[in-house]
Amino acid sequence: MKLFTVLIALYAVNGEDVESRVLFPSEAECSSALQPMQTILETSYDDVAVLCERSTLLSASPRPVARPEGLGDE
Fold first, then answer.
1. What pLDDT sits at residue 50?
2. How many independent structural domains does the chain possess?
């Protein structure tokens, strides 16, 4: 089951805490973005934390997709 996953980036700008969120359609896609996002933010900010948090919202239907008509006909 594919669930939406939120990438959460925490960092400070001029002494103020900032939280940014980016929505991904799967935990795998969010995980793939963790290291690049961490690297990007660390070039501009100190004390950066980046994490993925899985939601409870489905990003894809759990029902199988119907086969197109004529599939397998020869």
1. 97
2. 1
- Asked whether residue 66 is assigned to any structural domain, the reply reads no
The phi, psi pair for 42, rounded to 5°, reads -70, -20
Its domain, for residue 36, covers 3-55
Could you tell me the sign of the dihedral formed by the alpha carbons of 37, 20, 43, 50, in that order? negative
- Would you say residue 60 lies in a domain? no
How much is the pTM?
A: 0.76
**DSSP secondary structure of the chain:** --EEEEEEEEEEETTEEEEEEEEESSHHHHHHHHHHHHHHHHTT-SS-EEEEEEEEEESS-SSPPPPPTTTT--
Whether 23 is in a domain gets the answer: yes
How many other C-beta atoms are found inside a 10 Å radius of the C-beta of residue 25?
14
